[in-house]
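User: I'm putting together a teaching handout on how sequence relates to shape, and I'd like one worked example. Could you take CsbD-like protein from Glutamicibacter mysorens, show the sequence you're using, and then write out its predicted structure as tokens right after it?

Assistant: Happy to. First the sequence, then the structure tokens directly below it.
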Amino acid sequence: MGIGDKIQNKAQEASGKAKEAIGDATNNEQLQAEGVKDQAAAKAKQAGEHVKDAAKDVKDDLS
């Protein structure tokens, strides 16, 4: 996983947390749901990148 991808994923996750918190504070269910969705998307991307990294490590170990 490149450093740029890590930063982008963390930024998306943080933005999602902020949206969720603002949605909670303002009783805006749509904004809260959007925040939850953004967090889930960021975490899914991070999981995919971790799988890629692990596969690369296995490949490197076998070489």
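A couple of points you could highlight for students: Residues 16 and 36 are 6 Å apart (CA to CA). The mean pLDDT is 92.
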